[in-house]
Amino acid sequence: MPKQKKSSMQVGQQLSPPKITLKTKGLSEKQKDLVRLAINQDNKIIFIAGPAGSTKTYVAVYSALKQLKANDSLDLLYVRTVIESAEKGLGALPGNIDEKFNPYMAPLDDKLRELLPATTGVVADLIKKQRVQAMPINYLRGANWTNKVVIADEAQNFTYKELTTLITRLGENSQLFICGDYMQSDINGRSGFKDIYNLFDDQQSKDQGIQCFSFGLSDIKRSKILSYIIKKLSQ
After folding, report:
1. How far apart are CA 155 and CA 103, in angstroms?
2. Beta strands in 120-203 (DSSP E)
3. E-strand spans in 131-217?
4. Topology adopted by domain 45-82+91-234
5. Is the pTM of this model over 0.90?
């Protein structure tokens, strides 16, 4: 029995990749301010400081996806340290580098699924095409980022040297978000985030496209109880 030819509509449906369609809650004015900084192509590095639950990673991922939607040549790279936020570590994880790092990619995965419709398959498509990737900061030496939006998360767990390595990877047509929380460092006083943030928090750096942005207690969106907890811990 001869095979039936597929209609042009069926072929088109197979060839057309899922579109990036963002589903977001209404952004606050402070969040909109950060998005405006992010989509300004003159801004190459954006430091984002703030307490837990203040939407640092959420707005960074939102801004990155807006840019991937507008420009097919861009990819998203998510960078974290493999430092564990606990007094005792879990020990060595089995598998190759992707399998070892996978647990640390969970915050990005959460944000992707929060921001992108589950029914379209766009998350799987972005990962399959390697438009979304993750890498531990230990593997950045020698990298040169071109056509990338890079999100460095939990940057309070990066040393000054690691942050120096991070910001010197930036190449053409790329942007870097560095998100950190002064209160939650797990590397026993060796964090370089606050020092690097303060170093670039001046007008000269702004003129070069390096922005420093901070969220405060009033920007915590996760829950009311978290706002109380962070305020209490800050006293």
Report:
1. 17
2. 132-136, 148-152, 175-180
3. 132-136, 148-152, 175-180, 210-214
4. Rossmann fold (3.40.50)
5. no
